[in-house]
User: Fold this.
Amino acid sequence: MEQFAPVKRSKDGQAVRYLIVDDSVFARKNLARMIETFGGQVAGEAGDGLTAISEFDRTHPDIVLMDITMPQMEGIEAAEKIVQAHPEARVVMVSSVGYQENIVAALQRGARHFVQKPVKPEVLYEVIKYVMGEDGSVAGAAGAGA
Amino acid sequence: MKMELIQPFINAADAVLSQGLQGTTKVGNLSMEEDAYCRKGVAGMVALTGDIEGRIILDLEPQTALRVASHYAGADLPESDTLIKETIFELANQVVGNAVSALNDQGFHFRVHPPLLLTSAEGDKTSEDVEALMICFETSLGNVFMNVALRYNKRRMSDHAAVGAKAGRG
Assistant:
């Protein structure tokens, strides 16, 4: 898998920490492999929305990658609950169901971005940089040393 | 079965498989299935409800499923690995998700249900209003079969038509 310039947290230069939420083990493993290529760290995993909320409280990740269609509690509702409790939370929806209605609903209820499956690493990488904004920095980026 | 319903699923499967397997995918045989569904190997089924109802089955012969799952995992998996089933589920999810996204943008509304593993050798016999189309995708790792059985939900569609007519009069 392609390697990317690591995205670090600006405040302490540490790896960006991710919570991966997907009912598919396959999808979680796939995302975890991509995160490694971004220089990130998996802080936790969850297979449904309810567990995602408790895992967020436990791990306080920098970014949540959240599926939509899941058992117990779907991703959009879980994202809303997380953002209500933690307005600073950065939730990126990652779903194969990428129609306009779903995207709008997710963004209205607190998600910062939407990535459609199958996930292209280069797309997710750009979204991570965008969502981290000034709280993230790319190690070895031209702008830093120019 | 209307081709306008099927085409988004063919396009989605083609795109998902081409991207995931990093190779070209060729759409091979298409055939109508009138008898009960006969499972070929590892088969994941995703049901749809809403304006269009039915199900999609993604079915791979065991050795093809093993090769595909190993490709995604980046390592050779043992034949018994649960990741094989998970991989087929996720591929089915991605195909259905991408297809319903396209159909939703045309005004159809759905609920996509979590994938189920087909374990019996034979599935339900298709009825006259739910014909099934079997499409074979030829990939570098083997053939991937997609069985699509969909129909318009007449009640939901007539509700839409009534609302549209009322809005048109209003």
Q: What stands out?
A: Residues 3-169 of chain B form a domain with the Chemotaxis protein chec fold (CATH 3.40.1550.10). The first strand of chain B starts at residue 26 and ends at 33. The radius of gyration of chain B is 17 Å. Chain B has a mean pLDDT of 84.
